[in-house]
């Protein structure tokens, strides 16, 4: 069984939050339900999910917890790293646990179950799903995503992780940087080294090379997991994304 931390912290104002007149996009309404509710519902349907802790604004989460019995409410901190720390402290997980963002309303139980199965036997410190461009555009045609062109194909990153509690102290100092860089493959490659930039630009970089370099720089054993479920990677960042969610999640 796996515990889950959902990150629903309040971020800086964006085009999306301003247009919808909300402070936190996790509470955007999608057909009378908040975006966060879609994520919680999907995770609750996963047979291998145990406890769920949501980190965010306490007042809004306390009201939401009345709909979801057993939900652990954790007051948000100043940034992603602090929010992960607070969620981990609240759960005190003894084995690998999931960390998910609150802006993936398309998430399904099948996507999470497939990801967990692909991570077996859970020997790495951190698992991160990636989705092929052809799969993502087949499911969500016209949706703009950031793709990395590798020798193995074109991929976009997911919005859920499987993390070992044993590596938290090592990975947390770099976690916020990784979250920022995951939407910029070129900057991520530059962080990994200029040799990687050249290989990235010439599309010669492989998943295996990225995993090896990531493990050296972050002092954790990281593994990329190819997922056939675009729902795990498609978040709501822009007004056009929200329109799509309202159309598809009726």
Q: Top keywords for this entry?
A:
single chain, 11 helices, Spore Coat Polysaccharide Biosynthesis Protein SpsA, Chain A, 250 residues, two-stranded antiparallel ribbon, alpha/beta, 9-stranded mixed beta sheet, 21% strand, 42% helix
CATH topology: Spore Coat Polysaccharide Biosynthesis Protein SpsA, Chain A
Which stretches are poorly predicted, pLDDT < 50 over at least 5 residues? none
CATH architecture field: Alpha-Beta Complex
Number of contiguous helices: 11
Task: Explain what you see.
- The longest helix has 14 residues, at 168-181.
- The protein has a single domain (2-248), classed as Spore Coat Polysaccharide Biosynthesis Protein SpsA, Chain A.
- It is an alpha/beta fold and 250 residues long.
- The model has no long low-confidence stretch (mean pLDDT 90).
- The relative contact order is 0.17.
- It is built from eleven helices and eleven strands.
- Strands 1, 4, 5, 6, 7, 8, 9, 10 and 11 form a nine-stranded mixed beta sheet that branches. A two-stranded antiparallel sheet has the order 2-3.
- It is globular and about 50 Å long.
- The protein has helices at residues 15-20, 35-44, 58-65, 80-91, 109-119, 133-139, 168-181, 185-192, 194-201, 207-218, 239-248; strands at 2-7, 29-30, 33-34, 49-56, 72-75, 97-101, 126-132, 148-150, 153-157, 160-163, 222-227.
